[in-house]
Structure to design on (197 residues):
């Protein structure tokens, strides 16, 4: 029994190991956000993850496939923090600020995402699948599985664009304060939340 307790104690203290695939995705996320899609190559991703360049191709077919994997992690991270905020009954302002902060923390990645989604059919499909998952999640949050997906999609697309614009400083480029954009984004979030009743 003492041996079992000791083993349990050692296991609890042991650092959690991150697998090769996860390390590559983390490294790719950092590279894409620092240098964009065009400025990143698979060798740099592998080296940043601590691997020889050939290791990359054991896990991913090409740079686009890891970009899509990074996008999925980005999406999952956003969903997780929004779920937590909803669970805590956070204010619409807190949700708005968290969404803009998430977009701001990934500016260069988001720029690449927007460009690739226009130019690359595989990325366009991946983005559409992401948005479908987001619509399904919003329906769950609203507790209305039969909610109008078109209305949710319209609000979601507006929210995404506003969050990017606020993160990028586009309102300041127009000589405007952030207030109008923040208010509009807050209204969209509030509208989706109010449909929960």
């Amino acid at each position: 029994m003492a041996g079992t307790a000791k083993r349990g104690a050692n296991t609890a203290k042991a650092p959690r190991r991150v697998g090769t695939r996860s390390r590559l995705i983390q490294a790719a996320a950092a590279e894409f956000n620092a240098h964009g899609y065009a400025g990143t190559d698979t060798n740099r991703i592998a080296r940043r993850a601590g691997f020889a360049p050939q290791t990359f191709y054991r896990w991913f077919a090409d740079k686009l496939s890891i970009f899509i994997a990074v996008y999925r992690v980005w999406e999952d991270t956003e969903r997780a923090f929004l779920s937590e905020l909803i669970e805590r009954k956070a204010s619409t302002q807190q949700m708005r600020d968290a969404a803009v902060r998430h977009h701001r923390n990934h500016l260069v990645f988001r720029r690449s995402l927007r460009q690739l989604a226009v130019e690359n059919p595989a990325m366009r499909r991946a983005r559409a699948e992401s948005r479908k998952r987001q619509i399904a999640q919003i329906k769950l949050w609203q507790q209305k599985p039969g909610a109008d997906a078109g209305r949710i999609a319209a609000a979601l697309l507006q929210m995404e664009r506003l969050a990017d614009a606020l993160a990028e400083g586009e309102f300041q480029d127009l000589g405007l304060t952030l207030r109008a954009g923040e208010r509009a984004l807050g209204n969209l979030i509030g509208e989706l939340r109010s449909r929960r009743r």
Remarks:
- Residues 85 and 193 are 12 Å apart (CA to CA).
- DSSP finds eleven helices and no strands in the chain.
- Residues 1-16 have pLDDT under 50 and may be disordered.
- The domain at 63-194 is CATH 1.10.357 (Tetracycline Repressor; domain 2).
